[in-house]
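Treating backbone geometry as a discrete language has practical consequences that deserve illustration. The amino acid sequence and the backbone structure tokens for this protein are reproduced below.
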Amino acid sequence: MDDEAATHALLVFGLSLLVGPAIGALVGWRKTLFWGVGVGALLIGCAGLYGAATVGWQRHQSIAGTVLVEGRLVEFVEERSKDSKGRTTTTRAPVVEYTASDGQARRVKGLGGGLSDKSPDDPVDVRYKPADPSQALVADFQNMWGIVWALGLFGGFPTLSGIFFTGMAIKESRHRSGRGVVRTRTPAQQRWRTRGTVVANVVFLAGFALAFFYPDPNPMKQFGAGFFTIGVGALLHMVVQCLPPARDFEVLGILAIVGLGFAAFGYGAWMMA
């Protein structure tokens, strides 16, 4: 399902990896390094987010017209692929059997590495199109939304980095024009900042504890819960540092990138477990 939309999105993102650095280098040569890195990263990030949005919308429309049925895992088949350096990678792809409304049993293959916690004959949800029951996909997060999540990550990180470096470029130009701002902090503001920092640190440290001691044998669950909580802790630190008088832009930007990155990665790891 939606193979054409996914191919188009990956093509646009691949082209952005060539166009983004080229335009960024040109901007950096004409202006400053911060402007160049910011513009180049934004081009790559926007291409990734565009791909995530288009594939996500197409997947949403496709799933809206499907029927959910419970199938069963039949077997795992090995799939081999080669990277650009000629190295061979082997993955195990699940094969799931399902029966559509016409009573005919069919099989669908999931993505490599999926359903790794399942065993043959375990129940697995499948979605198929009533008009063409042979058009189906395994109804787990990886098969339904994995590419959207991946494109979102590949687009989100460069976008946040682009915003960060663009902000640094703007700040640099303001410093050159002598428009610096001197900020002071009242005792009440300092108390609120201290309390907020303590709460954020507790959440941050709880993330590390969950990554190692979460009560689930599945390591993806452990890392997912831990990384997501660490991300929330970093975002809480960002909120605290936004309290007046706010910290410098680079501090807020780094906390935003770390927080959103860890939270997004943790959420995806948890859902794919």
